Amino acid sequence: MRTLKKLALAVSVCFASQLSYGAESDRTNIIFLIGDGMGVAYTSAYRLFQDNLATPELDKTIFDEMLVGMATTYPDDHNQVTDSAAAATALATGIKTFNGAIGVDAQHQPVISILDKARELGYLTGVAVTCQVNHATPAAFIAHSDSRQSYEAIADQYIDLKINGKPKVDLIFGGGQEYFVRKDRDLVKEFEAQGYKYIDDINKLRKVKKLPALGLFSTGGLTPAVESDHPLRLAEMTQKSLELLTQKSAHPKPFLLMLEASQIDWCGHANDIACAMGEMRDMAETMKIIKQFIDANPNTILVATADHSTGGLSLGAKGRYQWEARVVRNIKATAPSIARQLLDSKANWKTVWQSLTQIKLAEDEQKAMDALIVQANENNQEFISGQVTAQVLTFFDKYTSTGWTTKGHTGEDVQIFSYGKGKETFQGAMDNTDIAKKLFTYLK
Known about the structure:
Blueprint: H1 2-16, E1 29-35, H2 40-49, H3 62-66, E2 67-72, H4 84-93, H5 114-120, E3 124-132, H6 136-142, H7 151-160, E4 162-163, E5 166-167, E6 171-175, H8 177-180, H9 187-193, E7 197-199, E8 213-216, H10 233-245, E9 255-261, H11 263-270, H12 273-296, E10 300-305, E11 309-310, E12 314-315, H13 325-329, H14 335-345, H15 349-357, H16 363-375, H17 381-400, E13 402-403, E14 409-410, E15 414-420, E16 428-431, H18 432-440
Parallel strand pairs: 1-9, 1-10, 2-16, 3-6, 3-9, 6-8, 7-8
Antiparallel strand pairs: 2-15, 4-5, 10-15, 11-14, 12-13
Helix pairs in contact: 1-10, 1-12, 2-12, 4-6, 4-18, 10-12, 11-12, 14-15, 14-17, 16-17
């Protein structure tokens, strides 16, 4: 709670000084926020997760306040269930494509994104994500590739592809150091040569005073929210991004900021409900920061949506008409992290389990876990760790009544949230490509 209060105070001070920013330009600022893998069940779960149990009413969330519509998510390859690359390309360009495609159409031809168009028109541009910055979703707004797996080639495009003689993006925050500092090429040095301020630690955000800026805060993706020293890291990066993109100048420019709560999806793939709720909290607090910014700068539109849902999450499982949000709240780490700590503690695992989950296991469950931990040695540590992780997830699901149908994506419609200038534009049922097409009309 202390972190939340400090962040809210900082936002209030920051945005209070920007009240006149929106009036200085008739061009609209665009903030596009994607909750990767965030299906309807995730926002429903978060409503229960964040509810004040001391009051009889079920508290509404920022998602409830901003909900305006629904979107279909299918790709253009007859699979009906999209991956993040095809979905992000649809959201970025308004064009359907095949699973795995980054910024190219079904004929493998490069297509222009809303970020490209904004850059051509002189907008400032920014990207902040909790995965590596060259991962599927951010990449679809910046790069072009037949394969989302071409991580190094995609990273190269972040500096090689230029518009008006400069890299496409003024501000890049997230993870991915291993793709930018390599034996064959040091992209960080190349960005610095282009005038970018580089930081490698999220604690150094305050040291970034102006654009352009590059912040890579981890080797790959950022630490999961539920076990991070910065559980609201997307919110922090968003606050700093808005501060930098709206610095006062004689000739203020509008901006396009693309944000992603990337790891909701990763938690869904892992079928880890506590992990997912940590990421949802970061997404919700990010939306609150943006709402406060738009209240001070009304010439701004926020659109938030998901690219797809992940995991087939259900609230209630195996015939039980209940979902135990209280139990989820008490889990303090991801299942793999808990498994590692249990194995490290050996005979003391029960104390560690209780401190990390507050779940009281039945006697037969304790014996089953004991048996696994006793089997662990140097030769089979990785195998046993996987088994312990699976057992931890089984306990999570049992004691919270959480259900999952898959380790992959699912094909149902996703929600659209909007706030600010022209939010009614995004009301109703539409395809994911329609969101991009509507955002293109804001650019001028």
